[in-house]
């Protein structure tokens, strides 16, 4: 069954407005909306799309939104879901960037995050439990998940964990040699990434909108990993190579991306505005998100073939388990930073009870957490 573009647009506009907490939280909210409430996808289908996003560069939660839109409404849905998830965060970050340029400081957002973070933890835990029941289908997958959690906890690279889990499942099932048909698609990803990187490295220091677009296109084409990896890329290009930003401006930009709802990649919107006003914000935003649409379109064409290949199915089963393991480790790290006193502990517990017992929509819980945070910070 297909879904109307209006329904897709409204859902992802809402998620883009209230999805605080980074990719793990965004994924949990999407799972709540499209699997539990609307039943647009099964747990297994959702996991397949999540696993696919972990194998390509770019912002995982945005790419997952694009996959969902494509699954429910074809190519128009692909564009609408991605654009509507990105748009609210872009507008919010753009407004903050305007205030930053005008007044020279960041508007306070600490109070809102104080109440939102513990609620987000409860939302992510609910999603992990639901997805875990679908992913951990055998004793071997459970053991693999435990090993992936341990590896992530001690700092093993995310890509090593993801691809390693896929390779282990292929070896465990004693199958191989059937992924050649998918290799062309992977080669396409590499070719696009190398082309974007080569074009960006040819840029010079004088600021311009096209050079700005090229730098963000390169970053969006080759970046795997967390917001900390994004910080490393931004620092290397904008502070050290081009000298367009100071260290403080870069840290302020990353902070805005972290504390606002929606994709962390809207850090690009802030940097673009600081450097080139509204045109710079638009160019930077398009540059960093454009590769995500291209990669999802390419991977979406091979995903049906992957589902029918025993080898590819084994790889995807391993990647799905590893993805949940990474999500679990991130959640534990977020919990330590979010639950800092009795107020936040009570918020987390009440949110968990409302989610598990009465299935309250996570959007209302996030808004309630924001209100509690503002009240608590005003004392």
Structural description of this entry:
This protein has 15 helices and no strands. It has 379 residues and is mainly alpha-helical. The chain has one domain (1-379). Helix 5 (110-135) packs antiparallel against helix 15, helix 6 runs antiparallel to helix 7 and helix 8 runs antiparallel to helix 9. The radius of gyration is 20 Å and the shape is globular. 48% of the residues are buried.
Sequence-ordered SSE layout with sheet pairings:
Elements (H helix, E strand, L loop, with lengths): L4 H14 L4 H15 L5 H12 L5 H44 L6 H26 L3 H15 L4 H16 L6 H22 L7 H14 L4 H15 L5 H13 L7 H41 L2 H29 L3 H17 L3 H17 L1
User: How large is the share of residues in beta strands?
Assistant: under 5%
Total number of domains: 1
Global Rg? 20 Å
- Counting helices, strands and paired strands, the structural category is mainly alpha
Poorly predicted sequence stretches spanning 5 or more consecutive residues: 176-204
What is the average per-residue confidence, as pLDDT, rounded to a whole number? 82
Q: Helix content range of the residues, please?
A: over 70%
- Counted beta strands: 0
Question: Short summary of the structure?
Answer:
By secondary structure, the chain is mainly alpha-helical. The protein has helices at 5-18, 23-37, 43-54, 60-103, 110-135, 139-153, 158-173, 180-201, 209-222, 227-241, 247-259, 267-307, 310-338, 342-358, 362-378. The chain has one domain (1-379).
């Amino acid at each position: 069954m297909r879904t109307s573009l209006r329904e897709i647009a409204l859902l992802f506009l809402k998620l883009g407005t209230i999805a605080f907490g980074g990719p793990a939280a965004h994924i949990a909210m999407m799972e709540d909306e499209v699997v539990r409430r609307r039943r647009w996808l099964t747990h297994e289908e959702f996991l397949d799309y999540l696993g696919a996003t972990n194998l390509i560069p770019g912002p995982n939660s945005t790419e997952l939104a694009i996959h969902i839109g494509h699954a429910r409404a074809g190519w128009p849905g692909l564009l609408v879901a991605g654009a509507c998830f990105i748009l609210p965060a872009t507008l919010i970050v753009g407004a903050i960037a305007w205030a930053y340029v005008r007044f020279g400081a960041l508007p306070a957002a600490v109070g809102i995050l104080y109440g939102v973070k513990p609620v987000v933890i409860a939302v992510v835990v609910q999603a992990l439990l639901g997805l875990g029941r679908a992913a951990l289908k055998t004793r071997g997958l459970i053991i693999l998940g435990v090993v992936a959690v341990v590896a992530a906890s001690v700092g093993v690279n995310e890509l090593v964990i993801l691809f390693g889990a896929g390779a282990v499942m292929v070896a465990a099932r004693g199958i191989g040699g059937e992924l050649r048909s998918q290799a062309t698609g992977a080669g396409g990803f590499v070719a696009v990434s190398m082309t974007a990187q080569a074009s960006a490295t040819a840029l010079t220091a004088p600021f311009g909108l096209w050079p700005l677009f090229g730098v963000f296109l390169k970053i969006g084409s080759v970046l795997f990993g967390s917001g900390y990896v994004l910080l490393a890329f931004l620092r290397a290009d904008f502070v050290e190579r081009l000298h367009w930003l100071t260290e403080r401006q870069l840290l302020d930009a990353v902070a805005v991306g972290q504390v606002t709802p929606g994709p962390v990649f809207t850090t690009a919107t802030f940097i673009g505005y600081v450097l080139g006003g509204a045109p710079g914000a638009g160019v930077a935003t398009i540059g960093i998100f454009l590769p995500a649409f291209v990669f999802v379109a390419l991977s979406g064409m091979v995903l049906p073939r992957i589902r029918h290949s025993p080898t590819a199915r084994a790889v995807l089963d391993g990647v799905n388990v590893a993805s949940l393991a990474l999500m679990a480790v991130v959640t534990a790290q977020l919990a330590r930073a979010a639950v800092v006193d009795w107020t936040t502990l009570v918020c987390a517990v009440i949110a968990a009870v409302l989610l598990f017992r009465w299935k309250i929509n996570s959007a209302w819980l996030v808004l309630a957490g924001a209100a509690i945070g503002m009240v608590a910070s005003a004392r």
